[in-house]
Amino acid sequence: MSLVRFVHAADIHLDSPLKGLEKYESAPVEKIREATREAFKNLIAFCLDEQVDLLLISGDLFDGDLKDFKAGLFLTSQLKRLSNANILTVIIRGNHDAEAKMTKKLHWPDLVHELNVKKPETITFKALNIAVHGQGYAERDIYEDLSQHYPAAIAGMFNIGLLHTALQGRDGHAAYAPTSVEKLRAKGYDYWALGHVHQREVVDTNPYIVFPGNIQGRHAKELGPKGVTLVALEDSHVESVTEHFLDVVRWDHCQIDLAEACNEGDVYHAIRKAVSAAEDRAEGRLLACRLTLCGATELHADLVSRQDDWSYGIRAKMTDSDGDLWIEKIRFKTQAKVDIGQLRTQDNPLGGVLRTLEQLQADDAGRGELLDTLNTVNNKLPRRYKQWADALNLDDKAQFDELLEGIEQLIIPKLLQEGGES
Ligand SMILES: [Mn+2]
Q: What domains sit in the chain, N to C, each tagged with a CATH number?
């Protein structure tokens, strides 16, 4: 019986910067900057510990062009450790490290193979009975189905397709190298090692079509455990496909419902409980945690009017945490404990404002006008405020609706106070 094992990784994004990190309160800047490198070291250690035969990396090793050779040297020296241990590596370039974007040429260690970017290339490993087919990105924007030119499966071998693709589209990912499960299946391969989509997804099991996700979350929108897929073959058939976590910084998001909270102590208690659960999930890693306070609560007026005081208080309370914790951001999304429907019917300024806000949700022309006004301000913002993951994007309807809702919840307590009505 022949046993072969390979690791499928993707989207390393080495040295990916967390844009605007300095703006954050008490951020562990160094640790976050180093996270993609540390996770990559974990990947190498994992391959060595598990004594796998082959490592596949399905694109986006680098986040962009290299300023100098430091990241390149780091990468090649790490991969050399695999090469020295007789472990093979096959790499394709993705949109982030497309050949045209990279001005520096890297010298790969002996057992590292980078597949062609001009046309599909097949590399066969006879001792493993494995054939790997793939093509890297020559340019960043690839809108044709690269897989259509991949060769047919080689009979009798275990065929793997390496492809950097968004398939038929995935939220938050550019629609590069589009293709479909049906088209991939038609190639007759045994495993499709995909990259590009940062959220892990086993798209299909017949054959296996897998996005392992990135190995390290890069910001507050890349949540939860991150790692690689380990595939074990027995006589050239898939025996198991398992997920292994390699991240060193864990991004998490706690929704804290304050409906039952009556005082400061209740708020801190609810937050502590949620954060402790997140710390358990992080299993000793640095936890970068976003808190969203929600629910209809008596404390709403106080929370929204004294956000800075509350933020400071929460951060100060959480410093007694046992774990390695960084509260990335605190979002105030609580609601006034009032009957908005009833307030909306009132014949007073508050009722009028609430009715206008409600109408805006459905009134495209009105929204357009408001958007124009907001955009004149938005367009004057420096570019750096628009580049980070959390940047305000007024063209995103969901974000715009959230903004309207936020305005509603912000003015209700103020106007209730002014008018003295309830
Ligand atoms: Mn990509």
A: 3-245 (3.60.21.10), 248-337 (no CATH), 340-422 (no CATH)
